[in-house]
Design goal:
- 29% of the residues are buried.
- Helix 5 crosses helix 7.
- The longest helix has 33 residues, at 221-253.
- The protein has helices at 15-23, 60-68, 73-86, 122-127, 134-150, 189-194, 203-217, 221-253; strands spanning 2-7, 30-34, 38-45, 48-55, 94-101, 106-114, 120-121, 153-155, 163-168, 171-176, 182-184.
- Strand 5 and strand 6 form a beta hairpin.
- It is of the alpha+beta class.
- It has 2 domains: 2-114, Phosphorylase Kinase, domain 1; 120-241, Transferase(Phosphotransferase), domain 1 (Orthogonal Bundle), CATH 1.10.510.
- The strands form 3 sheets. Strands 1-5-6-4-3-2 form a 6-stranded antiparallel beta sheet, sandwiched between helices. A 3-stranded antiparallel beta sheet has the order 7-9-10.
Length: 254
Amino acid sequence: MKEKKVFNESFTDAQGVINEFIKNFSSLGEERIHQERNTIKVFPLYDGLINIKAFKVPNVINQIAYKFFRKSKAQRSFEYANILKEKGVGTPEPIGYYEYTSPLAFKNSYYISEQLESELTFRELCRDLNYPNHEAILRGFTRFTFDLHEKQINFLDHSPGNTLIKKIGENYQYYLVDLNRMEFGPMNFETRMKNFGRLTTHKSMIEVMSDEYAKCSGESVDKIYTAMQGYTDTFQEHFHKKKRLKKKLKFWKK
């Protein structure tokens, strides 16, 4: 198995320690997330913590695609994190990535970043509409998203769990995670509004985001609300249709 590793220059001295974490990933570290697609663990490094995300071995077609034609999720996460930092967008400090390949296929990969502990994610705003400073945090998030759009960053996984929110003094700071799906370039109105479609089903939250985005962009509130709500409805329709199809497939497999 061939190993490829790339490090942020600021962390080259930590390579030996991180090598051990990768080598013994299954037995070391504190597990934070374990999903079908990936596992995230936290490890101590010097006086702080680092976050290692292990991507599962892709299916056979993608093993060939990632080997010969496409950048891996780990590589994209690292490169996109560096672009975000260059553009002044919050994201945990990128440290590096590892890839493992055979002569004919891509196998598994890891993305390493500094661990950022936060008070909440956007998801908590959806679960608790009475969360302290709810509207102020939501408006700040909307300004953060508008700033992404102005900087020509289309975060394709703009979903409730992928923005960490941290209170610093009296202000809130926003940080993107799960970075492997992004596009860079000018965004028209429809693309900008579609970017809000996966965030919430709460009409009251869409109203607040529409109002704040209108203040930032100069577009009419009604136009923005209609578009945001429309893309939200479309996403929910596709999401539930997909869910129903999965249930049917599971039924027929039994």
